[in-house]
Amino acid sequence: MPTRRIESVSRGRKLTPQEAARYRQMRADIEREQPAIDAEIRAELAQQREWAAVFVELKQVRQSLGLSLDDIEARTGIDRSTLMKLETGQRANFSLDMVRKYAQAVGKRALVTIADATS
pLDDT of 22-70, one tens digit each? Predict the structure, then answer.
């Protein structure tokens, strides 16, 4: 990444040499930490994609059984709009109990597997 020159004016006044040095150090710290932050974000996104695939599969099962979201709401107690958002990946915040209830409502069983973080 190309090095950028730090602007030496802040809030209408020139930075002192100490302030400029402090800002340079902060930028260096951020650039040093950025790869780890990026890796953490990529891992989180990958995990969200895995969970989204679970809800896509549950949706396919629901549709193959001819069930509507209203039917699933009645069977699970989970709000219809929440179910729709889960199925379309618009909602990433859910509990394992929601997965269990949904799976049960379509005659399936949810299984959770623990694996090494590197796999």
Answer: 999 999 999 999 999 998 888 888 887 888 889 999 999 999 999 999 9
Contact 56, 87 (CB under 8 A): yes
Burial of 83 (0-12, 13-18, 19+ CB in 10 A): buried
Q: Is-above-0.70 flag for pTM?
A: no
Rounded distance between C-alpha atoms, residue 86 and residue 110, angstroms: 15
Q: What is the C-alpha to C-alpha distance for residues 64 and 62, in angstroms, rounded to an integer?
A: 6
Among residues 80, 64, 82, 75, the alpha carbon closest in space to that of 102 is found at 75
Give per-residue burial for 48-61: e unless 16+ CB within 10 Å, then b: eeeebeebeebbeb
